[in-house]
Amino acid sequence: MTTSFAHHFTSTLLDTALASQAVYTLPFGTALLLFAVLLLLLVIALVWNAKAYQVPDSLIAHGHGNDLPSSPQRSDDLTVIEGIGPKTAAAFQASGILTYQDLADFEVEKLRAILAQANLRLGSVETWPEQAQLAANGDWHGLQQLQDELKAGR
Q1: Which of 101, 90, 112 is nearest to 138 (CA)?
Q2: Which end of the chain lies in a sparser environment, N or C, as judged by fewer CB atoms within 10 Å?
Q3: How far is 30 from 38, CA to CA, in rounded Å?
Q4: What's the half-sphere exposure (Cβ side, CA atoms, 13 Å) at 97?
């Protein structure tokens, strides 16, 4: 009788262990699909995060970054602003607008006057101070989002 009790007790323990293990076991195909979905979500999160902190290529190409200016009179690359090309940037620099903050602080009508004096015709300059303020604050993600919404600076 002891043998049958021990046998019954042992088989009950084994059945319980196997039954509880079966609850946590997934078929190989399901586990593989779950792994692939989790891996895809991880890749998407990493790409999303990398784009959120992306610095504009024009800043990298012109050597701007977090390094300190080499001279006391520092100037920013104003062509980072959507709608500002090299000629417009040169006209602004000749008028004393050297940094993003300088551009952000100027009124739109004064910007138009500078462009008229330099014989440059441009359509819309309304967003330039806003873009320049984002650049002055180092909010490259916000600047990129705004520029993605703009068409030719508008």
Answers
A1: 101
A2: N
A3: 12
A4: 26
pLDDT digit string (tens) for the chain, length 154 residues: 555 665 655 555 555 555 555 556 778 889 899 999 999 999 988 887 766 566 666 555 554 545 444 445 678 999 998 888 898 889 899 989 999 999 999 888 888 888 888 888 776 788 899 999 999 999 998 989 888 887 644 5
How many Å apart are CA 92 and CA 148, to the nearest integer? Answer: 24
CA distance 125 to 10: 84
Q: Is the pTM of this model over 0.85?
A: no
- For tokens 């952000």, name the residue: 104
Nearest Cα to 80, choosing from 9, 13, 140, 24? 140
First to last CA, the chain: 92
d(CA 76, CA 132): 10
Query: Given phi > 0 = left and psi -120 to 50 = alpha, else beta, which region is 63?
Result: left
**Residue 29 amino acid letter:** G
